[in-house]
Amino acid sequence: MWPDGKKHSRNIYGKTREECEAKLPELIAEMKAEIVAIKAGGVEAMSSIPDGISKKKRAIAEYMRLNPTVTNKALIARESGASRWTVQKYYDDIRRMMTAG
Prior knowledge:
The protein has 101 residues and is an all-alpha fold. It is 61% helix and 0% strand. Helix 2 crosses helix 3, helix 2 packs across helix 4 and helix 3 packs across helix 4. The protein is elongated, with a radius of gyration of 17 Å.
Protein backbone atom coordinates (compact mmCIF):
# COMPACT_ATOMS: atom_id res chain seq x y z
CA MET A 1 0.00 0.00 0.00
CA TRP A 2 1.40 3.39 -1.01
CA PRO A 3 1.21 6.55 1.15
CA ASP A 4 -1.66 7.84 -0.97
CA GLY A 5 -3.75 4.84 0.14
CA LYS A 6 -3.79 3.12 -3.23
CA LYS A 7 -2.19 0.03 -4.63
CA HIS A 8 0.06 0.51 -7.63
CA SER A 9 0.78 -2.39 -9.93
CA ARG A 10 3.90 -2.93 -11.97
CA ASN A 11 4.62 -5.45 -14.68
CA ILE A 12 7.61 -7.70 -15.14
CA TYR A 13 8.46 -8.96 -18.58
CA GLY A 14 10.65 -11.86 -19.57
CA LYS A 15 10.90 -14.61 -22.12
CA THR A 16 10.21 -17.34 -19.56
CA ARG A 17 8.33 -17.62 -16.32
CA GLU A 18 11.59 -18.36 -14.48
CA GLU A 19 13.12 -15.15 -15.82
CA CYS A 20 10.15 -13.17 -14.53
CA GLU A 21 10.30 -14.87 -11.13
CA ALA A 22 14.00 -14.04 -10.91
CA LYS A 23 13.26 -10.34 -11.55
CA LEU A 24 10.41 -10.18 -9.00
CA PRO A 25 12.47 -9.81 -5.77
CA GLU A 26 14.40 -6.93 -7.34
CA LEU A 27 11.16 -5.14 -8.27
CA ILE A 28 9.68 -5.67 -4.80
CA ALA A 29 12.81 -4.22 -3.15
CA GLU A 30 12.74 -1.25 -5.54
CA MET A 31 9.08 -0.49 -4.79
CA LYS A 32 9.63 -0.73 -1.02
CA ALA A 33 12.54 1.69 -1.30
CA GLU A 34 10.35 4.13 -3.26
CA ILE A 35 7.61 3.95 -0.63
CA VAL A 36 10.11 4.64 2.19
CA ALA A 37 11.56 7.60 0.25
CA ILE A 38 8.12 9.06 -0.38
CA LYS A 39 7.07 8.69 3.27
CA ALA A 40 10.32 10.35 4.38
CA GLY A 41 9.85 13.24 1.92
CA GLY A 42 6.38 14.36 3.10
CA VAL A 43 4.18 16.52 0.89
CA GLU A 44 7.05 17.57 -1.39
CA ALA A 45 7.60 13.93 -2.34
CA MET A 46 3.92 13.38 -3.15
CA SER A 47 4.53 14.51 -6.71
CA SER A 48 6.92 11.61 -7.18
CA ILE A 49 4.25 8.97 -6.56
CA PRO A 50 3.56 7.45 -9.97
CA ASP A 51 -0.10 7.53 -11.00
CA GLY A 52 -1.13 7.77 -7.37
CA ILE A 53 -2.31 11.27 -6.74
CA SER A 54 -4.83 13.16 -8.76
CA LYS A 55 -3.96 16.57 -10.17
CA LYS A 56 -6.52 18.19 -7.87
CA LYS A 57 -5.03 16.62 -4.74
CA ARG A 58 -1.58 17.70 -5.87
CA ALA A 59 -2.87 21.27 -6.44
CA ILE A 60 -4.51 21.33 -3.00
CA ALA A 61 -1.32 20.04 -1.37
CA GLU A 62 0.79 22.63 -3.17
CA TYR A 63 -1.51 25.48 -2.10
CA MET A 64 -1.53 24.22 1.50
CA ARG A 65 2.27 23.92 1.47
CA LEU A 66 2.63 27.51 0.25
CA ASN A 67 -0.05 28.84 2.66
CA PRO A 68 0.22 26.73 5.83
CA THR A 69 -1.85 29.12 7.96
CA VAL A 70 -4.95 28.91 5.74
CA THR A 71 -7.49 26.47 7.18
CA ASN A 72 -10.65 27.69 5.43
CA LYS A 73 -11.57 24.87 3.07
CA ALA A 74 -13.68 27.12 0.83
CA LEU A 75 -10.72 29.45 0.35
CA ILE A 76 -8.37 26.53 -0.32
CA ALA A 77 -10.85 25.20 -2.89
CA ARG A 78 -11.20 28.53 -4.64
CA GLU A 79 -7.46 29.19 -4.76
CA SER A 80 -6.44 25.67 -5.80
CA GLY A 81 -9.16 25.24 -8.43
CA ALA A 82 -10.80 22.26 -6.72
CA SER A 83 -14.29 21.86 -5.33
CA ARG A 84 -15.01 22.22 -1.61
CA TRP A 85 -15.92 18.54 -1.49
CA THR A 86 -12.56 17.54 -2.95
CA VAL A 87 -10.77 19.70 -0.38
CA GLN A 88 -12.91 18.17 2.37
CA LYS A 89 -11.92 14.69 1.16
CA TYR A 90 -8.16 15.29 1.09
CA TYR A 91 -7.65 17.99 3.76
CA ASP A 92 -6.91 15.76 6.78
CA ASP A 93 -4.64 13.46 4.79
CA ILE A 94 -2.59 16.36 3.43
CA ARG A 95 -2.34 18.05 6.85
CA ARG A 96 -1.15 14.76 8.35
CA MET A 97 1.54 14.44 5.68
CA MET A 98 2.61 18.05 6.21
CA THR A 99 3.09 17.59 9.95
CA ALA A 100 4.87 14.27 9.47
CA GLY A 101 7.32 15.66 6.88
